[in-house]
Amino acid sequence: MREFRMPSLGADMDAGTLVQWLVKPGDAVKRGQVVAVVETQKGAIDVEIWESGTVDRLVVEPGAKVPVGEVLALLRAEGEAAAPTPAGATPAPAAAQPVSAATPPGLIPPQGPSSERARISPAARKRAEELGIDIAQVAPAEPGGVVSRADVERAAEAMNRAPAPSQPAAAPDWQAQMRRSIAAAMSRSKREIPHYYLATDIDVTATLDWLTGENLERSVKERLLPVVPLMKAVALALREVPELNGVWSDGAFQPSEAVHLGMAITMRGGGLVAPAIHDADKKTLDQLMADLRDLITRVRGGRLRSSEMADPTVTLTNLGDQGVEQVFPVIYPPQVAIIGLGRVTERPAIHEGAVAVRRIVTATLAADHRVSDGHRGALYLNALARALKSPEKLR
Amino acid sequence: MTDWSRDEIREVILDTIATIAPETDVEALDPGKPLREQVDLDSFDFLNVIVRLHERLGIGIPESDYGEFATLESAIAYLARRMAPRDS
Fold it and tell me: Rounded to a whole number, what is the distance in Å from the CA of A275 to chain B's nearest CA?
């Protein structure tokens, strides 16, 4: 029997709330399939399973907050049958499972005949989280009944009428949670990672001229954003300085063959996530544009997938749209480098021996001194500048 | 091509902005002030505005004309020009 555990969806996550199962016992699942929705401080995430097999048992019920690493479900590997069934026979009924999908939706099954714990509806649990109330302190309206959302709200009201506590009232709305989550990751980064910072001005005239010509021939929907060739160049240049691409884990650097480029994407109304575009160095510009469109759309309106949250090997933050010229980025642990891009500005520069107006972007690198040093970092920024001189090679 | 009044074009633009940046109070936008100072749009959002206008109005907007969208007023004027019957 295999165990499917709550994945870590970033350095700042210690627990997640299981919102919904998308599979039930007896379902065949394939590696990479989305099997559950988990609510994190950065919103709801579609969680993928990493082994193929058959769902044997769902251990955790929707509504439960589960620490990273705890078992969510049990999985039978392919060929590992629970009980042999004759060919052609119907599968064993789901009711045979100890915890089955037949449990009335919305109810946490009792822990056992002797269980004294109150039953709590998922909606109540969620509301309690929103209101910052300890669900264990909320009594159901009827003794022995299920704690409902209304019970939680009544309890919250009663608490508000009580004398003010010495600490400010906890109202951990979604925004505050997001802020705390970012603060936790960035504090850890600044505490643990000895950052060094480098910056260089890169002439992107050739790349942007090429892009203008390319976009002229494209329909509105197929146009590429200027950041797309920059993403490709950032990913390709990492091949030359592999010690910037990977993660710091168990006291050592683990380089990554694949370049999973985390893209820092702002959320409407505040907050930030940096999900990965997988194998960014191998994708065409059209694929990168499609992936970026998909990611931004899902960050701002849909849902991200667990693999995107969990496995970036490096991050790119592009603040050019906001008009700043330079970014001094903070590394997102456990990664070891982050590249920042500012606004493209027209500046006087020496080009082919004469002063000319060129389009320039300031690229910055923050990297981890435990893994690399300024010399290697400088080689990386040079490689990036070189890649952007030959835009036709970026396609 | 159908005739579009400036008011209709204005409605389409405001509707598009409201879809892409739902936190914006589009009725409160100052038509003469830079849009980027009043609406939180990055280059991805802006491209989406152009794509939606293309879908709604049926005209392609080349990148070289993006500057026409600096203010609501200039955007309406530009689109009205582009939408005007050619034989006029």
Answer: 16
